[in-house]
Amino acid sequence: MTKWRLLDTGVQHAHHNMALEKVLLSSCTTGTVPSTLHLLEFIPCVLLGYNQSIEEAIDEEYCLNNQIEINRRISGGGCIYTDGGTLGWEIIAKKSTPGIPQNLEAMYKKLCEGVVLCLGKFGINAAYRPLNDIEVGGRKISGTGGTELHDSFIFHGTVLVDFDTDTMINALRVPLIKMSDKQLSDFKQRTVCMRELLGYPPKMSDVKANLAAAFSEMLGVEFEEGGLSEGEEKSLNEELVTFASDEWIYGRHVPHHKSNLNTFEYKAKGGLIRISLLLDETRGYIKSAFITGDFFAYPERGILALENILKNCLNRPEVIAKKVNEFFAAQELIIPGAGADDFITAITKAAQSGNNT
Q1: Alpha-carbon distance 285 to 263, whole Å?
Q2: Where are the domains of the chain?
Q3: What local confidence, expressed as pLDDT, does residue 197 receive?
Q4: Is the peptide bond before 279 cis (omega within 30 degrees of 0)?
């Protein structure tokens, strides 16, 4: 039976956990470490998706006043709140690993089966919900996502062992202020934690043990507990500086040209696409483009390349469509649940919207 590393790093600060994600993914590409199941826990924090901006996704003042850390994932998706009641898990392996589908959506479904099996060991009847959630009775108990580097990938998620919905609502920019009590109650019912389902919060050590056993069964591998390699320790110390920096945390910010900024939000199958375009209305071209949202892109930096080809593009639907189609045809960019047509629609609508959302 193939042996994998079981790495449990316990409770860490947000920048430590995010830096370690990059280190583990990078080390996997070198082939110097085995495939890994990483179990991690958090000090209260909000984690932005790679393609999100703080201004759009979180209430920064609330987070700062309540000692909630802010950081950014190396993968896409939406912003999440997590604390000591959340168990994080990550699969880091080669894309060619036997038993793991090459198709992204099939891989999502396959790896989510590990969490479904784990919850089943507690008597919880969970199920996979496309594209990347795990639910119990229609209520979300785990969200997942991932990214890749060269021939390797990281697929990660959470298990809500215990969860503070009120803090999440206050920390994230959830549009609930004008909702009625009934609507707010309905929103809170969208998620569920193990404590609510079982009537008590299970020990984190028991959840970890069952999760490792479930992934071992699902993947047909044997886990051996291990720590970081010497090379990983060195890389982590270097990356911690980057992931604690304002450049990393605040890097994806909306341009402050409000008077000239057109925005549009488009809901694709794979998630929300938010387009912000800075326009030269006199000469009729796009000065710059800013693309955010809670979608996943492989590779993530492909979105930056898409933004770049839109710079100084004529603001005409046929020109935008031609540029985006050529971009998707030439680039190895995969966005589950979204394609060139979705981005063409979103960009064209933003170019014509005049600050509509």
Answers
A1: 15
A2: 2-249, 258-353
A3: 97
A4: no
The answer, yes or no, to whether residue 60 has pLDDT greater than 90, is yes
Residues 185, 191, 193, 196, CA torsion sign: positive
Phi, psi angle pair for 315, to nearest 5°: -85, 70
Strands 2-12 and 36-42, sheet pairing: parallel
Per DSSP, the chain holds a count of helices (H) and strands (E) of: 13, 15
pLDDT of residue 183: 59
User: Do 8 and 225 touch, CB atoms closer than 8 A?
Assistant: yes
* Structure tokens given for 294: 């809670």
Whether residue 12 contacts residue 39, with contact meaning beta carbons closer than 8 Å, is answered with: no
CATH no. for 2-249: 3.30.930.10
Residue range 133-161: average pLDDT?
94
Residue among 215, 98, 96, 190 nearest 150 (CA): 96
User: At 324, which amino acid appears?
Assistant: V
- Tell me the two tokens of residue 58: 């979180």
CA separation for the pair 127, 124 (Å, rounded): 10
Closest CA to 79 of 87, 68, 71: 71
Superfamily of domain 258-353: CO dehydrogenase flavoprotein, C-terminal domain (3.30.390.50)
